[in-house]
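FAQ
Q: What does a multi-component entry look like?
A: The components come first, one per line:
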Amino acid sequence: MTLPYLIDQLVNGLILGSMYALVAIGFSMIYGIVRLINFAHGDILTIGAFAGLAAFASADLPFPVVILIVLVAGAVVGMVIERTTFRPMRGSPQVTGFIASLAVSIILENLAIMILSAQPRTFRIPAYLNALVDFGPVSIRVIDLMIVVLAIVLVIALTSFVRFTKVGIAMRATAENYDVARLMGININRMIMLAFAIGSALAAVAGLMWGSKYGQISPLMGVLPGLKAFVAAVIGGVGSISGAVLGGYILGLAEVLFVGLLPPALSGYRNAFVFGALILVLLVLPNGLLGRNTETRA
Amino acid sequence: MSDRDTFLPKFAALALIGAGLVFWARSVLDPYALSIVMFVGINVILAVSLNISNGFTGLFSLGHPAFMTIGGYMTAILVMPAARKGLMLPDLPAFLAGQEWSFLPALLAGGSLSALVAVIVGFPVLRLRGHYLAVATLGLIFIVQSLAVNLDGVTRGALGLSGLPSLTTTWWVYGFVLLTLFVCWRLKHSSLGRTMLAIRENELAAACLGVRVARTRVFAFALGAFFAGIAGGLWVHVVTLISPDSFSFGLAFQLVVMVVVGGTGSITGASIVAAVLTLATEFLKPVEESLNLYGASQIAIAVGVILILIYRPAGLFGTAEPQPLNLIKRLGSRHTSPANSPE
Amino acid sequence: MQTWIKGLASAAVGALIAASAGSAQAADPIDIVALYNLSGGGQASLDVPSLNGVKLKAKMINEAGGLLGGRMLNVTAFDTKDDTREAATAAKRAVAMKGVSAAIGFSDTTYVLAAAPLFQTAGIPFVTSGATSPDLPVMVGDEMFLVPFGDDVQAEAMAEYAYNKLGIHKIAIWTDRGMDYTTGLTKYFTKRFEKLGGKVVLSDVFMTSDQDFSALVSRLKSTKGVEGVYAASGPDTAGIIIKQIREAGLDLPIMGGDGLDTDLVVSVPGKEMATDVYFTTHAYVGLDTGPANEFRKAYTREYGHEPENAFAALGFDAMGVVANAIEKAGSADPAAVTKALAATKDYEGVTGALTYPEGSHVPSKPVAIMHVDKGNVDFDETVTPQD
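Then the predicted structure of the entire assembly, as tokens:
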């Protein structure tokens, strides 16, 4: 193994990691407020990707406008799911919400196949996004750079939003204790819906980025990224936004290095490795690297 | 004690009635309908055994498909004639290649291997709580699937093992349904079962009363895995094929639905919902085909689950056991859905 | 409990009979069942086009007056939901329907193996439109027929083309381990390529659901002496693989089987990068003339878009081969159909002229080698296997 090869693989890992981070942020956001593992998160990613495709295809809109459309689409879907499914069962055990999110996921996936057909579709992006930028030994595509930058910008923006704005503080109060927050005059329904809107909008944007990067989208594309984002969020500490990003990068790097540094015959165990790592992290660091609550184990 | 005294005769009476029905079904139903009856039975075994961990003990596991895969492969390899093994799996380790077991010991071996894996995995993983455990066991499905794809010397890779003898009959399934129901019923009403329920309700309090929480949990998990392994072995010898994708995450969801909708902890509830759900998906198919809306039945079931979670969060039966004899009487007299008659 | 089951069962069967009676008014239709994975997972992207092809052919035959002097084809499609259990129960249901003349189905060997043995026992021919394991008839029996050529034929054709025509002697192979189709391709390709004197310098694996191939691309890049890549991939990963290899600046020839016969191969990487790609596929499918053109036009008219991949044409031909056999047999009786199927000779399908050689149910069909150059998919040559 040579140094350029190692650098190559590290860059691969970082880019894949920022992809996971992007998906995981939204996931952690929702978990942080409502303590719900939202299994349908990956399917909202799919919706975002198809919304992006529709926006690109119907009119030759500039990329920033497409992002805006995708954000809105994701937020709307997230709010609808929250209002119709999760709000009526608020107060039930955690597991209830989890099962409901599985059901939502099955509904979305089957609807997607019924309406869109199972065929993968090409996702073309403007040529300038595919251009190469040189950084000495490595060159990176504009879209990959955008993904990395977007992940970092979003962490900073979301962390400061939650920490410093009035609404953000209200959201954190909601996350701490519904009843006390209500007594403080916070409309917790609105806060939870907002968390879903933001989290789902982020998933949708992640879908757009996913499609832009790989050039192909399909109705079931979100399933595996959704699961892996969950793993990333757990590694970082579910509920922590910066933890999600950290977890995403760690997972991306670990996955690429697992494939890249071990013999090719082991590449087939890639997903087994990811979930094995998940179980290991849960056991050693039940609250993840940056998590703080302690309800994960006895 | 009186509960127990009436239990045995009651169970025996029900078993006899059931045997009569199986006998009758075998003489009138065609092979397709009989295979549906078998899947109803297998799903009852799966749902009721999942209830040991998910219902009694409050461990939310999604791991049943992983244990079915282990049990299914184990049973299939043990039962397969040695000559066929040489053709299909030339790289099989020598200690497996020569084996040619009959069905019952092979099933039990498959179940035992699943239980063993559950014990090994259980000690670390069962320390996790709630949905963390759910996701860890979900990971287990992917890990086992990955192994089944890649260990092609034992599993023949993605293609799977095919042309297996169709050994499973309605009698085999019925026998194991009875065994599962019997074991679970006795367990639920034994001190061990009460211990499990205590852990579910309040773990700390249970521990203070001297309950060995970790050990009881692992036992519940392993017992469930044992029956899942057997169900896997039965399933494989109905379909006559096992592949890495045979038992996937979608199945885990269906099973969890059976337990949750039936009422976590209710044996009767889980059995009835398992039967109804299996039959409903089968009967929805012609509708789906005539409407040309493939996938609609999954959507319908998922919507139904959400509605039940909202309006009857404890499931249709809670932890209670409706009187099976009365229920069957009621069912016999009117064709009402059991969903309308809780308690 | 059982009486209640029976009640429901009879209601459902009644509904089924009513539904089928409504859709086919003509006296005595010929019943064909089609088993495909239409929902629930990854197979749908192959199986939906296949079923579309089957239905299109049946419709065209019916519009032209049906078979056996006016009997209409009645295709009943079963959705097996990416689940082998569903495949087995659907087969049982089809067999219980009575009067089925033939069954068509599946693009994956595993599903065929779950369903076909039941038709074998019932004495009904099972024609697979897309599963390509040449061992299938051996594993199932004499009711089993393949419409596509076996994996061995196309993989060997490509191995020879790569070694002799492209002059590639050192090759890297990427295999999707999640499918029997792709592992089979790799097995046969490697065997023939090494026999010719070639060397496999890198053998990497991935899974059908993978989307990020960056780690594999980097390893490919760092492996010395690679002259080409054989990508044993299904249609869903074909485009992404080419895109990611080309984006890394590698301009090696990329080769593959009929899994690469999809528009995604050009559209995902874009015209510029979709170049120096070679794949084996069914004769005519990619050609601009002959029955392929008619098929493409009819398909587009019926479904509003071009055929998604080669599986659409294979489904179309599966129905065609069965109809041809029924016509030849002069009867819709399954035993007669099986006999006529086995005797199929020079059936002119969209995927090439199909003949079942003496004693074999894997057709001898010409293999077309296609060359993708700057986004243009051109026919290069046809190889007809000699045995």
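Q: Is there any commentary attached?
A: Sometimes. For this entry: Residues 2-248 of chain B form one domain.
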